[in-house]
């Protein structure tokens, strides 16, 4: 099931709407090799830079065949071998990954839908204890040149409400990611 779409503009323009380096720095990637899962890879805007900066295995998914093809092309041009691409409807099929197998899950610009909880449930299911789900989305407090309707953009309260009871803990890592985004990180609680 495809979430509400605001359309993908040309790749160069799309990539210009993010401070990619700053967002990757905010992620605070694990120092050791890890497993990172990205749901909604688009052009590979974050997939490719993450794979360049990390020895981690990256599993990235998209529902659009054309996005997978472009992201794969971008990864090939960069000579990257640590990315596994999956054409998959996450809301209908999940990721297909084992439970407790991912160190980090990325949900970037995808939670502007009524199915927020389903995405967060899958993230919680595949995260290891202490793993992080990192979410970024378009800000709703300023005008932005792209993005879904402002009233569909999630805020911190909506994300925390959608994650209630999913063993995901907010530990205060929420930040404006200039120019047009904000981010929040939730940590999967350690089961004792």
What does this 3D model show about the protein?
It is a single chain. By secondary structure, the chain is α/β, with parallel strands linked by helices. The protein is built from 7 helices and 7 strands. It has helices at residues 11-16, 20-27, 47-53, 65-77, 90-93, 116-126, 156-162; strands at residues 35-39, 57-62, 83-87, 102-108, 127-138, 168-177, 181-188. A 7-stranded mixed beta sheet has the order 3-2-1-4-5-7-6, with helices on both faces. The longest helix has 13 residues, at 65-77. The chain is globular, with a radius of gyration of 15 Å. It starts with 10 loop residues before the first helix and ends with a strand.
Strand order of the largest sheet: 3-2-1-4-5-7-6
As a percent range, the share of strand residues is 25-35%
- Determine the oligomeric state from the structure: single chain
Beginning-to-end CA distance, first to last residue? 36 Å
Task: Quote the average pLDDT.
Answer: 93
Low-pLDDT segments, ≥5 res: none
Q: Looking at the structure, what is the overall shape?
A: globular
How many individual β-strands?
7
Question: What class do helices, strands and sheet pairing give?
Answer: alpha/beta
Helix coverage percent: 25-40%
How do the helices and strands follow one another from N- to C-terminus? Answer: HHEHEHEHEHEHEE
Output the radius of gyration.
Answer: 15 Å
User: What does the largest sheet look like?
Assistant: 7 strands, mixed
Number of helical elements: 7
